[in-house]
Write a structure and sequence with these properties.
Blueprint (H helix, E strand, L loop, with lengths): L3 H8 L5 H7 L3 H22 L5 E12 L9 E17 L4 E6 L5 E4 L13 H14 L7 E7 L9 H17 L6 H16 L6 H8 L2 E5 L7 E4 L9 E7 L8 H17 L10 H15 L1 H25 L3 H19 L12 H13 L4 E5 L6 E7 H15 L4 E4 L7 E2 L3
Helix pairs in contact: 4-5, 4-6, 5-6, 5-7, 6-7, 8-9, 8-10, 9-10, 10-11, 12-13
């Protein structure tokens, strides 16, 4: 644990290797993040008093391959990005966790009762309680701590702010009470447990794993209790391409039924083939059975099953392309994945609101600017929210100006894949 003066000296106005690893080398970005952390330290001192603390970071994530494959035990390709949740945290020698997040009311979680609280559903307190409950069930230590958090992963950005927050809490508990014993994958599984059972959202495990692990990873969920995680060694920065995430401004509020229909449709096809999930059957089996099950499951379900099978295999092909440094082939597969999501998975716009197609329009604009020179696809859950594009340097200014002409200044975020996952900032 370190004191205020030591941490401030280590931050050194952003001129340090730890920040360059997390946020890149642009001086203005480093200075902004230095001010961010020192501001959190000042806020912590005002709110909780001066005590020894540590600095923590937890990245957002970008899904690069495997759109809606994880919930049917498929494969994904994902990366941690340089937008993160940052925190200052220290023990308070009580049984209560006290958290103040910038822009939100302070809340407390009493660890004497770790059962789910109905009134906490869909709140940060539920996520904290769920993470602590699972830590305790698995034999890890918990305890009271104080924390000030800056949520640099925007809600609704498609970069998975909730998963980043969950594994941030896990990283704090691990560092303060468990001497770093909790494996990153275990931290991810704990975060998913909390979101499923306390927060009330039936998510897969991709988001938490990418945030907890860091870097570029591929995950195979064939055995969902023991996902196989593999680091992919590829330097995106060296390609000269930028990863651009565009927020199309759509509202996710009324889309729960749309999101729920995706795993439901896929699993309905699997059930007709005597399986639990689509990973347990083949594309050939789906096609062979299609004439006999159309009336039972509907044509959309069969189309979504085809998407799953194709995108699941595409992840393997994408990883192989990156590992042999064939970036051009990789880009082609990103586009193919996007087309599959549009035509087969049908998660680009909600069927009950065809007038509002922000994601569709952003993809069309991307096609106009990048065709033959870059790649673009829906990002994350779909229906509203964000798209992802890989943009060559010579088209970056044109791409951003074209997109922001429609969606407004600041709609595009230029990111990179960072190596560190959730954990202590190590100076």
């Amino acid at each position: 644990m370190a004191n205020y003066e030591k941490l401030t000296a280590s931050i050194n106005n952003g001129d340090n290797n730890a920040f360059r690893e997390l946020y890149g080398s642009e001086p203005a970005v480093l200075k902004r993040n230095a001010e961010r952390y020192t501001g959190l330290l000042d806020l912590f001192n005002r709110e909780f008093g001066k005590k020894d603390v540590e600095l923590f970071t937890s990245p957002g994530r970008t899904e690069i391959g495997g759109n809606h494959t994880d919930h049917n035990w498929g494969r994904v390709l994902a990366g941690a990005v340089n937008l993160d949740n940052a925190a200052v945290a220290g023990k308070n020698n009580t049984n209560i966790i006290r958290i103040l997040s910038e822009g939100y009311p302070r809340f407390e979680v009493d660890l004497s009762s770790l059962a789910p609280v109905q009134s906490e559903k869909f709140t940060s307190a539920a996520l904290v309680r769920g993470v602590c409950a699972r830590f305790k069930e698995l034999g890890y230590s918990t305890g009271g701590f104080d924390a000030c958090i800056d949520g640099g992963v925007p809600k609704g950005s498609g970069l998975s702010s909730s998963a980043s927050f969950e594994v941030l809490i896990g990283a704090i508990l691990d560092e303060l009470f468990n001497n770093g014993k909790v494996d990153p994958i275990q931290n991810a599984i704990i975060g998913q447990y909390s979101e499923n059972n306390y927060f009330g959202k039936p998510c897969g495990l991709m988001d938490q794993t990418a945030c907890a692990m860091g870097g570029l990873i591929t995950i195979d969920f064939k055995d969902p209790a023991k996902p196989v995680v593999k680091k992919v060694n590829f330097d995106f920065v060296a390609t000269g391409f930028s990863l651009v995430i565009t927020d199309t401004g759509g509202n996710h509020a009324d889309l729960n039924d749309e999101y729920a229909s995706l795993p439901t449709d896929m699993k309905a096809v699997a059930a007709e083939l005597g399986a639990k999930v689509l990973r347990q059957v083949s594309l050939e089996q789906v096609i062979d059975a299609a004439p006999g099950i159309r009336e039972k499951v509907g044509d959309r379900a069969i189309l979504r099953a085809i998407h799953f099978q194709k995108d699941n295999q595409r992840v393997v092909d994408q990883v192989e392309a990156l590992e042999r440094n064939d970036f051009k082939s990789f880009l082609g597969m990103v586009v193919d994945s996007g087309y599959s999501s549009y035509m087969y998975n049908q998660n680009i716009f909600p069927v009950n609101n065809v007038r509002e197609q922000g994601v569709s329009l952003a993809l069309a604009l991307s096609d106009l600017v990048l065709k033959g020179q870059g790649a673009w696809r829906v990002h994350g859950g779909g229906f509203a929210g964000t798209i992802q594009a890989f943009v060559p340097k010579n088209l970056l200014e044109k791409y951003i100006s074209t997109i922001e002409h429609v969606y407004g200044k600041g709609a595009c975020r230029t990111l990179f894949i960072r190596h560190q996952g959730a954990g202590k900032v190590k100076f």
